[in-house]
Amino acid sequence: MRDNIEDILESTLFSRDDIHEMCVRLGKQLTEDYAGKEPVLVGALTGAIFFMTDLAREMDVRCKMDFIDVSSYGNGTESSGKVKLVKDVTTDVKGKDILIIEDIVDTGHTLKFMKEHFISLGAKSVKCVALLNKPSRRVDNVSVDYYGSEVENQFVVGYGLDFYNMFRNIPYIGVVKPEVIQAYANK
């Protein structure tokens, strides 16, 4: 099987322009909601790196930026349900307003873990902004406070979202063909 993007994708779900519009809209909302505050933006590695960068440029507030790396997927396409902390933030979050930046919230396992983690570290508030929200797959009862768009139960890649740690660098978001997912699962 060739790993060219044309062979992997069924369709384009969000174009570069669509993503830019989401970042502008969310940046404006976050600027209003965090006016006078100094939130700590915490990007969930590795998927949120592009979104966090573009979103932060659309926010007109003083903020700090840090990263956390948690995993519940490993190299697969389904969540294991067990979340592990791979890399913690280096910023002292005690008494701070934390804004978790996620590429997509699916089952909610990692978001629940991160929210509880920051609360246990003494954060003043913990909210989440996700590029994509997939509530149809939600297992844990967690809220996504801000999001760019809801998506159906499709496997999507691009703009940070990956398929077996590939295709994060495509500048738009596409839907992976079901037969490709099946073929990789059988490898």
UniProtKB/TrEMBL annotation:
SUPFAM superfamilies on file: PRTase-like
Metabolic or biological pathway, per its Swiss-Prot or TrEMBL entry: Purine metabolism; GMP biosynthesis via salvage pathway; GMP from guanine: step 1/1; Purine metabolism; IMP biosynthesis via salvage pathway; IMP from hypoxanthine: step 1/1
Enzyme class, broadest EC rank: transferase
Gene Ontology terms for molecular function: guanine phosphoribosyltransferase activity; hypoxanthine phosphoribosyltransferase activity; magnesium ion binding; nucleotide binding
Keywords, comma-separated and alphabetical: Cytoplasm, Glycosyltransferase, Magnesium, Metal-binding, Nucleotide-binding, Purine salvage, Transferase
EC number: 2.4.2.8
Phosphoribosyltransferase domain residues: 18-163
Annotated TM spans: none
Example GO BP: purine ribonucleoside salvage
Compartments, as annotated in UniProt: Cytoplasm
Entry GO terms, CC: cytosol
Required cofactor(s): Mg(2+)
Top-rank taxon: Bacteria
Catalytic activity from the UniProt record: GMP + diphosphate = guanine + 5-phospho-alpha-D-ribose 1-diphosphate; IMP + diphosphate = hypoxanthine + 5-phospho-alpha-D-ribose 1-diphosphate
UniProt similarity note: Belongs to the purine/pyrimidine phosphoribosyltransferase family.
Protein task: Purine salvage pathway enzyme that catalyzes the transfer of the ribosyl-5-phosphate group from 5-phospho-alpha-D-ribose 1-diphosphate (PRPP) to the N9 position of the 6-oxopurines hypoxanthine and guanine to form the corresponding ribonucleotides IMP (inosine 5'-monophosphate) and GMP (guanosine 5'-monophosphate), with the release of PPi.
Protein name: Hypoxanthine phosphoribosyltransferase
Gene: hpt
